Amino acid sequence: MGRRRPRHAYTALVRAHELGITLFDTADVYGLGRSERLLGRLLRHVDRDGLVVSSKVGYFAGTGRHPYHPRQMSHQLATTLDNLGTDHLDVYFLHSTDFGEHDQYLTGVVDLLGEWRDQGLIRAVGMRAPHTFAEQWADHDEPESTETGRFLRLFHTVRPDVFTARYNLLSPLYSPDQTDIFAFARRHRVGVLIKQALGQGLLIGTHNARDPRRFSDTDHRRGDPRFAPDGLRRLADRLAPLRARYGTSTAALARVALRYALQHAPDSIVLVGFRDPEQIHTDVTCLGDPLTDDEIAQIRATLHPDTPEGDP
C-alpha cells in the first residue's frame, strides 16, 4: 500500500460521513486489519451511536487450525473491536460457509454468536447468500447436493438477521414462480446488504482491456477471467448499448447500476467500495431520477436477451 492511499482512503471515509453515510462495512481480512483500523480512526471523531458498523470473520485463520475454531473466533472478535476502537459491532458477518470437515465448528459458532449477542458485543448476525439463488432449486431429498440446499440448511441453523447478496446489472433474472434471495429475505424478515452493485468497477469503466490492471497474488481478481483482457472486451461489447443511451462518464454509468439495484430491492442497502473522496462523492450524488419501468425493461432485454419476459 502506497503512502498516499491510506490518507486518501481516510479522507474518503470522512467525506462519506459528511454526505450522510451511516453504515460502514469492513472485515478482519481486508488489509489484514488495516481497513478496520482506518475505520476506527473515523469512529474516534464522530458519533459512534449514530452509525451502523459491521465486520466479518471466517476467512482468516492466522496461526490457528481453522477460522471458525472458537479460540480463533474469539481472538478475531477481540482484535476487530480493538482495531475499531468500539465496544460492540452492530452486525457481525460469517464471511465463509466453510465450517470445517462435516461442519464440525458450526454448532460452536452459533453458540458463540449467541453468547456475544447476550453480552452486547454484537447486536446482529450476518451471513452471505449464494451469488445465484432461487429457493425452488433446492433438492429436499438431498439438501447438501446443491448450493441452495446447503444455504437453506445453514440459514435455519444460524438464523441470521442480515444477508449480504451480490446483485447488479449482470445478475440473472428469475421467473415469477421463483423465490429469489430478496423475496426469501422479506418472508423471513431478514435484512439485505447488496454487494458488488458496480461489479467491482467492471460496470463503470474502471477496468480497460487495453491496459488491464495488475492484481497482487492474494487478490481473487488475479485469476478471474472477467478481469482478463478477453473478458473485459466481451463485457464492453455487452454494455455498449447502455453507454450509447446513458453516457460513458463514471457518474452516468454508476447511476444506472445503482438505480437498477436499489429499485429492484428498495428495502435493501447497497454497499459501495471507494478509494478516494471523488469516488464516494460520485456514488452518492449521481443517483438523479429513478429509472422508468420502460428503461429497466430495456436494460434487461439488452443484457439478458435469452431470458423469457417476466418479472425477475
Describe it.
This protein is of the alpha/beta class. The protein contains ten helices and seven strands. The chain has helices spanning 4-18, 34-43, 70-84, 106-119, 147-158, 181-187, 229-246, 250-264, 277-285, 293-303, and strands spanning 23-25, 52-57, 91-94, 125-128, 162-166, 191-195, 269-270. A seven-stranded parallel sheet has the order 1-2-3-4-5-6-7, with helices on one face. Helix 2 links the parallel strand 1 (23-25) and strand 2 (52-57). Helix 1 (4-18) packs across helix 2, helix 1 runs parallel beside helix 9 (277-285) and helix 2 crosses helix 3 (70-84). It is globular.
Write out key terms for the chains shown:
312 residues, alpha/beta, seven-stranded parallel sheet, 7 strands, 40% helix
What's the structural blueprint in terms of helices and strands?
Blueprint: H1 4-18, E1 23-25, H2 34-43, E2 52-57, H3 70-84, E3 91-94, H4 106-119, E4 125-128, H5 147-158, E5 162-166, H6 181-187, E6 191-195, H7 229-246, H8 250-264, E7 269-270, H9 277-285, H10 293-303
Parallel strand pairs: 1-2, 2-3, 3-4, 4-5, 5-6, 6-7
Helix pairs in contact: 1-2, 1-9, 2-3
* Secondary structural class: alpha/beta
The count of helical stretches stands at: 10
Strand order, main sheet: write it out.
Answer: 1-2-3-4-5-6-7
Characterize the overall form: globular
Strand content: 5-15%
